[in-house]
Amino acid sequence: MKIGLLGLGTVGAGAYEIIENQKGRLQEFYQEELTVERILVRNLNKKRPVEVPDGKLTCDADEILNDPSIDVILSLMGGMEPAKTYILKALQNGKHVITSNKAVVAANLSLFLNEAKKSNVAFLFEGAVGGGIPIIKPLKQQRRLNQIEAIEGILNGTTNFILTQMMENKLEFDTVLADAQARGYAEADPSADIDGFDVQRKIAILSSLAYGQEIPTEKVYTRGIRSIRGIDTDYFQSKNLDVKLVASSAQQDDAISIWVEPCIVDPSHRFYAIKNSDNVVSFIGHLSGRLDFVGAGAGMDPTANAVISDLMDILDNHYQADIIPLAIAKNVGPTHASQDYYLRVDLLSCTKSEQARLAEQLLNLGLANNQEIYQGMIEGIEASMMRAIVSDVEKECGSIFYARRLRG
Ligand code: HSE
Questions:
Q1: How far is the CA of 392 from the centre of ligand 1 (A)?
Q2: How far is the CA of 171 from the centre of ligand 1 (A)?
Q3: What is the pLDDT along the chain (408 residues), one digit of tens a residue?
Q4: Are strands 148-154 and 242-252 parallel, antiparallel or unpaired?
Q5: Strand 399-405 versus strand 57-58 pairing type
Q6: Is 275:281 a contact under the CB 8 Å cutoff?
Q7: What are the pocket residues of ligand 1 if the criterion is a CB atom closer than 6 Å to any ligand atom?
Q8: Quick check: 245 and 404 in contact, CB under 8 A?
Q9: C-alpha 215, offset from chain centre
Q10: Less CB within 10 Å around the terminal CB: N or C of the chain?
């Protein structure tokens, strides 16, 4: 089998290395030689994490996409374009496609699945969600009989690493983010991680597969962790709580509620023990009950291993049944249920009149004031009211961090 590799970043280099280092074992198992034939890069002379023989690298995608001898494309480059164009072209040219690019999958899932079906090839993306955790394959298999009612998880290694290090080692946000980048966890543009968009894409992909409806990412209410400060983590520590960036979706009747928000958990919660770059994905099926999948959520080897597991599914011819028709999703939005929240608002940079107006609201919610920093727990407030307060404060002047209390 001949492979064309698009992109030689963290995941691309990891996948190349696994194929090269495990060549003998793969050949022994499949009685077939696996060769990375060509690799698309932007710059031929850049220093890379892996050594590649001269002649394999090219800057011309058509040399790979139009090469009839290439059977499988590993599209391991980030961003929307040209990744979308290359994936479509590869599928239309009758090549199997494997990708770990969640942005392009979340935005084009139906399109890619339909193209793959037309060409009778695989479109697989295990590495796009949960890093090294095998979750896409079990979800696709389970949903055939086991109706999925809800999904919940910690789906970003970078933010979980940042939050763990801030909580346990009292490190500053920026220091830990730089460390997460050095370890190969963070996206090229880390705002995708810290503002929650990476998680938004992942929960949209999982929910689309689980409920058989294509869920647009813009329908996922999303908050990240950019505004968390030591004052917040100190508060959580004093109450024996931990903080996580959580994604959740649930289907009831014909409505889907879906959101991404920081959440606080106490030591009895199953997410409490998920530390550093580990992720967890839980889904609840009407036959299985809750199933938890835990493992490395980011990093070169775990994610590359997920990519190679897709490659093995193609070699095993286990991909045909994977193609799920997706309907257009109806009634998708954030939850409106009442929740308990932690809230911290900093009104120091507001004008006196703004301070007075917002302070009255915040004191009425029961927050304590310490030199124009308002902080505390709010019990039983509707999620929509909380979102309105947040948008009011942010529109006016204040910096804010909030986290939903997760129980169960
Ligand atoms: N930046 C992502 C994360 C990589 O930190 O989870 C894995 O999808």
A1: 31
A2: 20
A3: 999 999 999 999 999 999 999 999 999 999 999 999 999 999 998 888 899 998 999 999 999 999 999 999 999 999 999 999 999 999 999 999 999 999 999 999 999 999 999 999 999 999 999 999 999 999 999 999 999 999 999 999 999 999 999 999 999 999 999 999 999 999 888 999 999 999 999 999 999 999 999 999 999 999 999 999 999 999 999 999 999 999 999 998 889 999 999 999 999 999 999 999 999 999 999 999 999 999 999 999 999 999 999 999 999 988 765 667 788 887 998 888 899 999 999 998 888 998 999 999 999 999 999 999 999 999 999 999 999 988 888 886 778 999 999 987
A4: antiparallel
A5: unpaired
A6: no
A7: 131, 156-158, 185-187, 193, 198, 297-298
A8: no
A9: 15
A10: C
The SS3 call for residue 348 is coil
CA of 253 to the centre of ligand 1 (A): 32
Closest Cα to atom 4 of ligand 1: 298
Separation in Å, CA 277 to CA 2, 31, 131, 212, 253: 33, 36, 10, 29, 35
Q: Are strands 278-285 and 289-296 parallel, antiparallel or unpaired?
A: antiparallel
Which phi and psi angles does 258 have, rounded to 5°? -150, 135
Amino acid at 82: P
CA–CA gap between residue 265 and residue 153 (Å, rounded): 13
Helix (H) or strand (E) holding 96: strand 96-99
Name beta bridge partners: 75.
Answer: 6, 99
For residue 352, indicate whether it is catalytic: no
User: What CA–CA distance (Å, rounded) separates 295 from 280?
Assistant: 7
Give dist(CA 44, CA 59) in Å, integer.
Answer: 7
Atom of ligand 1 nearest to the CA of 180: 5
Do 358 and 396 touch, CB atoms closer than 8 A?
A: yes
Q: Give the count of alpha carbons within 13 A of 226, CB side only.
A: 12
Atom of ligand 1 at shortest range from CA of 129: 8
Kindly name the residue from 84, 95, 102, 202 that is annotated as catalytic.
202
Residues 6+ apart with CB under 8 A from 126: 98, 100, 134, 135, 136, 137, 306, 307, 309, 310
| Whole-number Å distance between alpha carbons of 78 and 98 | 13
Q: For ligand 1, what atom is nearest to the CA of residue 130?
A: 8
